[in-house]
Design brief:
The protein is an alpha/beta fold and 517 residues long. It is built from 20 helices and 16 strands. Helix 4 runs parallel beside helix 5, helix 12 runs parallel beside helix 14 and helix 16 crosses helix 18. The longest helix has 17 residues. The structure holds hexanoyl-coenzyme A.
C-alpha cells in the first residue's frame, strides 16, 4: 500500500482544524448570533491581545455513545481552551461553546478545563472562564457530575494562588454556577448572562412560584440583591474589556507584587478641607473624597450595586495598586450591615491574598441596629470583617474622615487590628457611641431628676462632644498616628505606602483559620 503523501496529510489537518473552528456548525453559530451572543472563539478574540491566542485540545471529542451521542461528536467538544496575553501578560482561558450541545459539560469538556486550570496554577497566571452552558451533559450522567467535582477541586486549589475570573455570557444552570461561585470575581453580561441552581420550571413544580429566567438569575438579581456577581455590563465586548482592565490592578499570582507606575504626580487637594459638613448627621459623597486622593480616574469599583453603604474597589495611589474600602455616608449613613460586612470582608481577603495594600476610609456610626439585622446574623457576618482585617498582613493604612463609633471603630482597620498607619482628619470622632446616646445612658438618672432636663441634656451632650468627639484622645494614646489636614491626605498615603513597601508580618503557622462562615 502506498503511504499517504505528506501534502495530503497536511491538507487533512487543515480541513480538521477548519471543521473544529466551526464548533457545532454554521447553523448553530447563526442561532447563537441571533440570540445576540458571540461564539466562544469570537469572545476569546475580544478578551485577549490581538493574535495572542494559542488553542489547546481542539481535537478532543467526547467518548459517550449513549442516547445518540455517538452521532454528535464535534472537534473540541463544548469548550474552547488555551492561553494568550492580556496587556502583554499571560492568562489561561476557557470559553464554553454553546453551539455544541448547549455548552454542556461532558467528561471530555471537564478534562480540557482542568488541563488549563492546572497550567494556570503551575505557571502562576490568571484563569478566566467564559460561561455559556446548559450545565451537566444530561446524557453522560455521573461522568459529567464527576467532571464538575474535578473543576471545583481545582478552583479551591487555585484560590489565593492565581486570580480566577468568571464571565457569565449565557445561561449557567445547576453545576455551571458553582465553579464561578468559587472564583474571585463574577462578571455578567446584562440581558444574556443568567445563573440559577434550578430554573423557573423546577421552581414552579416545587414551590408554585412563577418567575422568569431573567428575574430569577439575571444581572439585577445577582449584582444588586444576592451579591453573587460583582460586575455587570451592557454588551459582551464591554464586559470583556472590563475584565482586561481589572487584571491591570492585580498581580499574576500570590508570589508577585502588583505592577507599579512610577510616573505619577504627588499633589495635594484643597477641596478636601471643606468636604465634611458642619452638621455631623449630614451625608456627603465618599466617592468625591476617594477621587480627590487616588490617581486620576483610577477607581475600579467591585460590587458597586450591592451594599452601597460600603465602597470597595481597586485603585492606584502614586502609581501603586491598592484596594480601597470606604464607608458611604450617603447610604444607611455608612453603617455596617450584614451585606456590607460580607462585601468588605471578601474584598479585604482577596487583597491580602494577592499582596495589594489596603486603604480604608472611615466614617461609620456603628453596626446597623435592628431586629432584622440580628436575625440575619450581623454578629456572625460582622465577625467576618474583623477576621479579614485582623489576618491581613498587607500594608494597612486608614483615614478617619468623621465618625468611628463602637465596634465599627475597631473593625475598620484600627490600630489594634494591626493597622500600620492610622490617620485622622481634625473632623474625626472616636467614641463608644454618638454623644446623645452616650449621655442618655450615663446621665439617665440626673436628667430624669432634673427640673430643666432638656437644658441639662444639651449641656451634657456638648461636654461629652468636647471631651470625646475628636481624634485627639486616640492620638494621645497612639491609636491614631497623626491628625492631618485633609488636603495632605494623598501625600501622606503615598509616603506611607513607600515606607511599608517591604512590610513582612507572620503569624504562627497553622493549617488554616476558622473564619466564621
Ligand atoms: C445536553 C443540552 C443541555 C444539557 C442544552 N442542551 N442543555 N444537551 N445536556 N444539559 C442542548 C439542547 O438539547 C440543544 O441541542 C442545544 O443544547 C441548545 O439548547 P436549547 O434548549 O435549544 O437552547 P435555549 O433555548 O437557549 O435554552 C438554553 C437552556 C436550556 C436554558 C440552557 O437548554 C436548558 O434548560 N437546558 C437544561 C438545563 C439543565 O437543567 N441542566 C442540567 C442542570 S443539573 P440541539 O441539538 O437542539 O442544538 C446540573 C447538575 C450538576 O448541572 C450539579 C453539580 C453540582
Amino acid at each position: 500500500m502506498n503511504p499517504q503523501p505528506t501534502e495530503d496529510k497536511n491538507k487533512k489537518l487543515i480541513e480538521i482544524k477548519e471543521t473544529a473552528n466551526l464548533g457545532g456548525g454554521q447553523k448553530r453559530i447563526d442561532s447563537q448570533h441571533a440570540k445576540g451572543k458571540f461564539t466562544a472563539r469570537e469572545r476569546i478574540s475580544f478578551l485577549l491581545d490581538e493574535n495572542s491566542f494559542e488553542e489547546t485540545d481542539s481535537l478532543v471529542t467526547h467518548r459517550s455513545n449513549e442516547f445518540g451521542l455517538e452521532d454528535q461528536k464535534f472537534f473540541g467538544d463544548a469548550v474552547v481552551t488555551g492561553y494568550g496575553l492580556i496587556n502583554g501578560r499571560l492568562v489561561f482561558v476557557y470559553a464554553q461553546d454553546f453551539t455544541v450541545l448547549g455548552g454542556s459539560l461532558s467528561e471530555a469538556v471537564s478534562e480540557k478545563i482542568c488541563k488549563v486550570m492546572d497550567l494556570a496554577v503551575q505557571n502562576g497566571a490568571p484563569i478566566i472562564g467564559l460561561i455559556d452552558s446548559g450545565g451537566a451533559r444530561i446524557q453522560e450522567g455521573i461522568d459529567s457530575l464527576s467532571g464538575y467535582a474535578k473543576i471545583f477541586q481545582r478552583n479551591v486549589i487555585a484560590s489565593g494562588v492565581v486570580p480566577q475570573i468568571s464571565v457569565m455570557m449565557g445561561p449557567a444552570a445547576g453545576g455551571a454556577t458553582y465553579s464561578p461561585a468559587l472564583t474571585d470575581f463574577i462578571f455578567m453580561v446584562e440581558g444574556t448572562g443568567q445563573m440559577y441552581i434550578t430554573g423557573p420550571d423546577v421552581i414552579r413544580a416545587v414551590t408554585s412560584e412563577e418567575i422568569s429566567h431573567e428575574e430569577l438569575g439575571g444581572f439585577q438579581m445577582h449584582t444588586q440583591l444576592s451579591g453573587v456577581a460583582h460586575f455587570s455590563f451592557e454588551k459582551e465586548e464591554i464586559t470583556l474589556q472590563k475584565v482586561r482592565e481589572l487584571l491591570e490592578y492585580i498581580p499574576q499570582n500570590n508570589m508577585e507584587e502588583p505592577q507599579v507606575d512610577e510616573n505619577v504626580e504627588i499633589q495635594s487637594s484643597e477641596i478636601l478641607n471643606q468636604i465634611i459638613p458642619d452638621n455631623p448627621n449630614e451625608p456627603y459623597d465618599m466617592l468625591t473624597v476617594i477621587n480627590e486622593i487616588i490617581d486620576e480616574e483610577s477607581l475600579f469599583q467591585v460590587h458597586e450595586d450591592f451594599a452601597k453603604n460600603i465602597i470597595v474597589g481597586f485603585s492606584r495611589i502614586g502609581g501603586q495598586s491598592v484596594g480601597i474600602v470606604a464607608q458611604q455616608p450617603e447610604h444607611l449613613a455608612g453603617s455596617l450591615d450584614v451585606n456590607a460586612s460580607i462585601k468588605a470582608a471578601r474584598f479585604v481577603r482577596f487583597c491580602d491574598a494577592f499582596n495589594i495594600p489596603l486603604i480604608t476610609f472611615i466614617d461609620v456610626p456603628g453596626f446597623l441596629p435592628g431586629v432584622e439585622q440580628e436575625k440575619l446574623g450581623i454578629i456572625r457576618h460582622g465577625a467576618k470583617l474583623i477576621f479579614a482585617y485582623a489576618e491581613a498582613t498587607v500594608p494597612k493604612i486608614s483615614i478617619l474622615t468623621r465618625k468611628a463609633y463602637g465596634g465599627s471603630y475597631i473593625v475598620m482597620s484600627s490600630k489594634n487590628l494591626n493597622g500600620d498607619i492610622n490617620l485622622s482628619w481634625p473632623t474625626g470622632e472616636i467614641a463608644v457611641m454618638g454623644a446623645e446616646g452616650a449621655v442618655n445612658i450615663i446621665h439617665k438618672k440626673s436628667i430624669s431628676e432634673s427640673e430643666s432636663s432638656e437644658d441639662l441634656k444639651t449641656q451634657l451632650i456638648s461636654e461629652y462632644e468636647e471631651k470625646f468627639m475628636n481624634p485627639y484622645v486616640a492620638a494621645s494614646r497612639g491609636l491614631i498616628d497623626d491628625v492631618i489636614t485633609p488636603s495632605e491626605t494623598r501625600v501622606k498615603i503615598i509616603k506611607s505606602l513607600k515606607m511599608l513597601q517591604n512590610k513582612r508580618q507572620n503569624f504562627p503557622p497553622k493549617k488554616h483559620g476558622s473564619i466564621p462562615l
